[in-house]
Amino acid sequence: MTENRRFAECVAVVLRHEGGFVEHPRDPGGATKYGITLRTLRGWRGDDTLTTDDVRALTEQEAREIYLARYWNPIRGDELPPGVDLAVFDYAVNSGVRRAARELQAVVGVPQDGAIGRVTLAAVREHDPSIVIANVCERRRAFLRGLGTFPTFGRGWLRRVAAIEEAAKARVSASPLTIREAQGTDTVQVSTQVATLVAPLAAGVSSLVSAFQGMHPAVAMALIAAGLVVVVAAGWFVASWLRSKRI
Predict the structure, then answer these.
(1) Distance CA 43, CA 47 (A)
(2) What distance in Å separates the CA atoms of residue 87 and residue 103, rounded to the nearest whole number?
(3) Cα–Cα distance measured from residue 166 to residue 163, given in angstroms and rounded to the nearest whole number
(4) Count of structural domains within the chain
(5) Which residue of 3, 101, 183, 228 has the smallest Cβ count within 10 Å?
(6) What is the SS3 assignment for 44?
(7) One domain, residues 144 and 208
């Protein structure tokens, strides 16, 4: 399994909250490990004969694979704005993908069909991500308070939501300039090194323009055009290199 940077960052936060093996007698989900229930594990492996022992033996690597395939990809995590990705992802892990998706859709004012698609993504991008995060987390709190198990687990749930909201908003404020890849399916950081490296080339072209004064106009224009091609090509090369390094 290949993890991209954004998923790796978000799943690390989720795993810190989920912890290891737990089997609380009042938890309707039963035994869990890394937040993965027996029911989820059976569905993932396609084996209804699995037992609590199989949950206990679950590896973190397999849990991450489940999170990527069953939660992150369905919420279109790579395409949500930084911060919103974590808030919706953690909600989906805790309460289901469709519920998390419907809450996000309610916040941004689109039909609540429980499936995040182009309409939802476009609407999300029109809103302030910090406000989206705050509203999604508030709706999540309201949902949790209505559960019958809230008296038992409520304090821990609310602490988790508060921590997720804080971490999600931190992702917004720390989010660097990004380049869209694959028609918006992923984002990578863009270092200011691009401008630093390309600037000297641009300055060189400017100097050449001054030097070309007095030349035949056609010759000067051809040389200037060639110089611009070099600058554009260099910029593209540096940006591609930065994307490959995930700077």
Answers:
(1) 7
(2) 11
(3) 5
(4) 2
(5) 183
(6) helix
(7) no
